[in-house]
Amino acid sequence: MFSQKDGVLTVEDVPVTEIVEETGTPVYITSRARLEENTRAYREAFPDAGLLYAVKANNNLALMKIISSQGFGADVFSDGELYLALLAGFKKERILFNGNSKSREEIEIGIVSGVKFSVDSLDELKTISEVAKEYGKEVEIAFRINPDVDPKTHPKIATGLKESKFGLPHNMAVEAYRVALELDGVVPVGIHCHIGSQILELSPFVHALNRVIDIAAEIEKEGVELNFVDMGGGLGIDYEGKGSPSPADFAKAILPEFERRKSELGSDPQLWLEPGRSIVGNTTILLTRVNAVKKGYRNFVAVDAGFNLLIRPAMYGAYHRVAVANKMDRGAEETYTIVGPICESGDVLARDRKLPKVEPGDLVAIFDAGAYGFVMSSQYNGRPRCAEVLVSGDRWDVIRERESYGDLIVKQKIPEWLL
Ligand SMILES: Cc1ncc(COP(=O)(O)O)c(C=O)c1O
Q: Which CATH architecture has domain 99-273?
């Protein structure tokens, strides 16, 4: 899907130079074919599972429309994500409202929308029960369990360690289900965990699954009838070109264990998964233009996108492959560090990369930017956000317009006494 023609990077059949002539830079560009390849890979690997797309990874409506049309449900983490997911066509029956700090208002919106909840605390359970009774509804819930499993990933995206803020400690789970069974307005029907993100070893998933099924067996004895066991998302992608497990590898590791352990249960729960990064991560490049090349302590290439548009390198020390998009047929000549325009020393997109000779005006492509890219963007330093484009074969469409100066002030107000 990402190739080259006459030295120019192409996305499907479109040279990126054709796109930037109209949109300018920076711009996020997504391949529809790659996105559908990823959703298909999950469907084929897990034909019987409930697949919920993790909206937090990329909430562009056009992309989510493609994902929802492939039979996915959605994992949402806020009322805003719920709003976007419904707009994108995800069915309410297949939406799970996650989150460790839901406000009463958010809970009300979720209940009125008719979605299921993953409950993070007993306080939240109480609120859900109260609101459900107010509206005369019965809400299907799962508890998010903290299984205390090391996912062997970056500490900032490890969520299932005992010190993490997410979920109920696994040894408190049975008691929580007991409380839920006693309350009106809530019906426990599932169990949920999510151990982290960008996980490249599969054994932590199996470890967590076993923890969760141990609890499932216990809560069944209390009278819970389980419809689903949700193991969250987290499958990593190949940022560094060193390989990563595919959904098929993931299925091979987890499905036999799920089937084996499920046979110990009285009920017949469906396996649910919540992939985000492994659906959208490798579908998208961020294309940025070189403003200046400067020989200093390092050989710096200053481009027009920084951590305002892609925060992963600054936030997690994340690695993204880069290429000079208008010199794809040239060999590496020099070592460069790609930096953004933001007034922070940490605004480094890629360090010490061997590239063809870079000059002002060149285009630098940053690969695998589809997950936790645009969604985590900001207007820091007064920079309007960039456009997003979707390529499908030889056509391309703007799926989010570039922001203008007006967007920098759209909700600001100057008090009358200052006018
Ligand atoms: C509850 C939950 N589910 C799913 C995901 C998606 O994870 P990933 O994008 O790594 O697949 C996340 C990410 O943080 C999450 O918190």
A: Alpha-Beta Barrel (3.20)
